[in-house]
């Protein structure tokens, strides 16, 4: 059983290209050949060999192998105990990263998973997904994520990465909070409460890391966003003011002029003329 799938325009981060299952006949092989996408084979029973980059692996139940795009590979079922396997092909901007998390790379292409039969179950669910119509692509993508999550969870422990300092983490949390909530009437106290730090300590830490106060950073961020909105002719100056957290258009105009050196109205005229 094999099914090929059309290119996904909706799930560019990760999407299936094909999937299938097969009980191979003795000595059945494929290649040497290349693929244009990632392809993972998982062995349900039996054994066989996989060759890539001058290396030869003998594999059996509970193991599998990764074929990377544009890499020459060859694989063959054993003559005496041919394998039965399932496979799924996939691509997308997240594919390489997720495989690395599972410990699977071109130089380390062998997977190990003997916890349960969920890989087999998910392949069965993929086959049954043909009963869906509108949601099939989304369902298949979800099953692909579940499949890869099993491999990540059971993969080798990765060495600890260099962690950011605690101060850098707090600064990023402040910036993220402002980015997500600048349009609301937020205060420094709100930010400190969200992060869980004393207000004075957080302000001191942020100033030391960024050479600007949280309040000034917030104001500058709001004005930068307001400048980006000026090109939208459907938004009045008052609309823009409210969109960046200022319910008082006069206060907005005063702050805008202080930061940009000109009034919002004049800035907008310059923006329109440049366009």
TrEMBL record:
InterPro entries: AraC-bd (IPR003313), Homeodomain-like_sf (IPR009057), HTH-like (IPR037923), HTH_AraC (IPR018060), HTH_AraC-typ_CS (IPR018062), Tscrpt_reg_AraC-type_HTH (IPR020449). This is AraC family transcriptional regulator. It comes from the Bacteria. Residues 172-270 form the HTH araC/xylS-type domain. Keywords: DNA-binding, Transcription, Transcription regulation.
């Amino acid at each position: 059983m094999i099914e090929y799938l059309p290119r996904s325009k909706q799930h560019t981060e990760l999407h299936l290209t094909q999937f299938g299952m097969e009980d191979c006949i003795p000595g059945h092989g494929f290649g040497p050949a290349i693929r244009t996408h990632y392809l993972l084979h998982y062995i349900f029973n039996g054994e066989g060999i996989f060759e890539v980059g001058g290396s030869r692996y003998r594999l059996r139940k509970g193991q599998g192998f990764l074929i990377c795009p544009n890499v020459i590979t060859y694989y063959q079922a054993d003559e005496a105990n041919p394998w039965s396997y399932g496979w799924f092909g996939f691509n997308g901007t997240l594919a390489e990263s997720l495989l690395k998390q599972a410990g699977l790379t071109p130089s380390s292409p062998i997977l190990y998973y003997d916890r349960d039969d969920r890989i087999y179950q998910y392949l069965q669910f993929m086959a049954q997904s043909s009963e869906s119509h509108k949601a099939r692509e989304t369902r298949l993508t979800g099953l692909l994520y579940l499949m890869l999550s099993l491999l990540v969870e059971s993969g080798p422990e990765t060495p600890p990465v260099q962690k950011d300092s605690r101060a850098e983490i707090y600064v990023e949390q402040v910036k993220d909070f402002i980015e997500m909530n600048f349009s609301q009437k937020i205060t420094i106290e709100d930010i400190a409460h969200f992060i869980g730090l004393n207000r004075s300590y957080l302000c001191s830490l942020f100033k030391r890391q960024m050479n600007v106060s949280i309040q000034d950073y917030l104001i500058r961020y709001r004005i930068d966003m307001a400048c980006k909105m000026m090109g939208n002719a459907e938004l009045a100056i008052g609309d823009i003011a409210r969109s960046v957290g200022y319910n008082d258009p006069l206060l907005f105009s005063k702050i805008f002029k202080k930061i940009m050196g000109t009034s919002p109205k004049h800035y907008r005229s310059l923006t329109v003329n440049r366009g």
